[in-house]
Amino acid sequence: MSWWQAIVVAFLYFFADAPFFFGEGYYVLQRPVVGGFLVGLVMGNPVQGAIIGGTINLIFLGHMSVGGSIPSDMALAGYVGTAFALALDTSLEAALALALPIGILGTVVWVGRMSISSIFAHWADNYAEKGNERGVMLMNWLPAQLMLFIFKMVVVALFCKLGGEAVGGFLNAIAGSWAFRGLSVVGGILPALGIALNLRAILKQETWPFLLAGFVMAAYLNIPIIGISIVGLISAMVFMTNAKKVAEKG
After folding, report:
1. By residue range, what is the domain housing residue 215?
2. Considering the entire predicted model, what is its pTM?
3. Which residues contact residue 153 at a Cβ distance below 8 angstroms, ignoring those fewer than 6 apart?
């Protein structure tokens, strides 16, 4: 991976969490499937990038942030995991196995950044005691955004460039060994785990018939996934409309 590619990947990761487009950032840019496609564009293989990012996305189907805590940084896993996979030309299973610890590492960095940023709130309090409104406004965004830039732009760019070489050396060292086969097996299990977590959250008495119908259409009628998605969208709209009417009558 070249330096310019590492810098652009880091910028995309920074932009996904920057406050400029909060909704689009969290619900779109942070998703590994989107990150994988964008990284693929940077590295000259958008199709493979989208495939890798989409597969990494399966791991995080059950991803949920509760009480301000995050179990794993799915954006870091998507952007950096895809970048490593494309740069090292590794298998999809190995890429998945690498993406998970990268996401967990992102959580550690996130906690450290939040801990340091808490200092800025006290600086804002000091300005508030002096009646300095401009100082309070600056302390509420400037130092925190500089910290975000350092952690997500500078650190990640260095990690992409230098860490990629280290990861590549590690994979070459264990290539063909039981450790690499184990890594591939774990990578194959992770998407199934993500799907299971998602099903556990959404599979309720009123929704399981839709899942069964989708399975039948895919397995026995050979309907493409886009067609199934369209049928699912229409079914969801009809279901929600009927549920709303019943609630209004009740």
Report:
1. 203-250
2. 0.70
3. 10, 11, 13, 14
